[in-house]
């Protein structure tokens, strides 16, 4: 394997979704306003910028205000606000006439891409980080070697003084569904729109199972009903009913940036209690307007004497298998203690995402990390003699609160990490990697 060793970077960002995009803005602001520059590079495994591409459904709207964009809550005068995006796109007045705080998900993705395009010079797309290794000087770790792999299989290595990890979540597939997860007729919502099912099911009256009781499950169910009017859809979920998300004003204050201070200062037991108390803001819940649409759909089907969409509450999947004719799902209705089995032409898994506290590519430096604990500035606690700073974004719900995986705190979190990077900058010139060095090492 060959490694191309690139020049030094003050910070390498892993992933270039909204979190590290907000960081790129904050670093740029620091350069312009404080004249403190960090040589930065971001690496992103996708071939181009796209935010939740599998769920950019027609008619799906954001669930938070456009003011909670990448920068407005920190600096509403920034050129990277959603308002300026509308202005530059020639749609500001038209959007105002829509009388809404909630743009479509497609438009918000376009806003994010518009910002990302302005930082394209510092982003390498199509690279996956496979390892982060220590660079030693004596007994101290003075930098990190970030090893990536391109789509063509080439391995690249870059030296970074600091690292900011924002890789998002990995699609969660419950263990009972893993025997069928590899079948082409089964898709997680993360890949829904890119699935061949969208085209292959046309012209049929397919039987489709949607597994899950949250926002994504409801959105996919409605989308399937519109795409395939003759489809028979079973929506399977464990709860007693589809529940509305709580987005009331007082509850929404838990997503304010200052609430992070309060949450982080609590003991572990109290943090867990807070998360349990507010789960109905984000987990296994559905936007009330979407619930109304689903209910009206089921009601109109009753009026017409046809029930193509059937809800299966209080139901747990106890078995799943693949046959030539379809995907077999075995359900247990806990309330009635009844087992049933059905075959489907397609299955959509809408069971959310998993977020690893410390991603596997950090394993080579795991011995320097102290129990995966995060400081208030999102920095991993490390042992003495480990000089690089490693920050995690979007996987710290248990230490920083429910807002950590959402968009609400992006601007302030990016500013906090930028301030920490500047404050902890420690760059002894005698131990720096030569910025002009570029060599190929064969092994």
UniProtKB/TrEMBL annotation:
UniProt biased composition (Basic and acidic residues): 426-443
Cofactor: FAD
One Pfam family this sequence matches: Lys_Orn_oxgnase
Entry keyword annotation includes Flavoprotein: yes
Amino-acid biosynthesis as UniProt keyword: no
Domain of life, per lineage: Bacteria
Family annotation (InterPro entries): FAD/NAD-bd_sf, Lys/Orn_oxygenase
UniProtKB keywords: FAD, Flavoprotein, NADP, Oxidoreductase
Region Disordered, annotated ranges: 423-443
Membrane-spanning parts: none
Pathway the protein takes part in: Siderophore biosynthesis
Protein family membership: Belongs to the lysine N(6)-hydroxylase/L-ornithine N(5)-oxygenase family.
UniProt cross-references to PANTHER family, sorted A to Z: L-ORNITHINE N(5)-MONOOXYGENASE, MONOOXYGENASE
Listed name of the protein: Lysine N(6)-hydroxylase/L-ornithine N(5)-oxygenase family protein
Source organism of the structure: Bradyrhizobium aeschynomenes
């Amino acid at each position: 394997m060959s490694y191309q060793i690139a020049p030094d970077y003050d910070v390498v960002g892993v992933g270039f979704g909204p979190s590290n995009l907000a960081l790129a803005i904050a670093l740029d602001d620091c350069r312009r306003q404080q004249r403190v520059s960090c040589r930065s590079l971001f690496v992103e495994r996708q071939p181009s910028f796209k935010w939740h591409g599998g769920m950019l459904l027609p008619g799906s709207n954001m669930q938070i205000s456009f003011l909670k964009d990448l920068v407005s809550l920190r600096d509403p005068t920034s050129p990277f606000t959603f308002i300026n995006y509308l202005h530059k796109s020639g749609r500001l007045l038209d959007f105002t006439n829509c009388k809404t705080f909630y743009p479509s998900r497609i438009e918000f993705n376009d806003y994010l891409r518009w910002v990302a395009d302005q930082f394209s010079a510092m982003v390498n797309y199509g690279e996956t980080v496979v390892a982060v290794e220590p660079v030693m000087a004596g007994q101290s770790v003075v930098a990190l070697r970030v090893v990536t792999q391109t789509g063509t299989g080439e391995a690249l290595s870059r030296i970074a003084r600091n690292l900011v990890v924002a890789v998002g979540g990995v699609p969660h597939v419950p263990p009972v569904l893993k025997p069928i997860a590899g079948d082409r007729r089964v898709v997680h919502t993360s890949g829904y729109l890119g699935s061949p099912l969208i085209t292959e099911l046309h012209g049929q009256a397919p039987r489709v199972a949607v597994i899950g009781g949250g926002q994504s499950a409801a959105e996919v169910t409605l989308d399937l009903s519109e795409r395939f009017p003759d489809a028979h859809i079973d929506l399977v979920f464990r709860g007693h009913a589809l529940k509305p998300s709580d987005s009331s004003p007082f509850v929404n204050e838990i997503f304010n940036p200052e609430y992070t201070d309060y949450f982080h200062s609590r003991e572990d037991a109290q943090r867990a209690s807070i998360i349990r108390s507010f789960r109905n803001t984000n987990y296994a819940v559905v936007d009330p307007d979407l619930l109304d649409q689903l209910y009206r759909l089921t009601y109109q089907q009753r009026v017409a004497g046809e029930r193509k969409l059937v809800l299966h509450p209080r139901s747990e999947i106890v078995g799943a298998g693949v046959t030539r004719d379809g995907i077999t799902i075995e359900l247990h209705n806990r309330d009635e203690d009844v087992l049933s089995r059905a075959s489907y032409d397609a299955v959509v898994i809408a069971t959310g995402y998993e977020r690893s506290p410390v991603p596997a590519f950090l394993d080579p430096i795991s011995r320097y990390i102290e129990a995966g604990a995060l400081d208030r500035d999102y920095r991993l606690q490390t042992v003495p003699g480990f000089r690089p700073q490693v920050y995690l974004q979007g996987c710290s719900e248990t230490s920083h609160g429910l807002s950590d995986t959402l968009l609400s705190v992006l601007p302030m979190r990016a500013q906090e990490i930028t301030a920490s990077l500047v404050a902890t900058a420690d760059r002894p010139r005698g131990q720096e990697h030569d910025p002009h060095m570029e060599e190929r090492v064969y092994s």
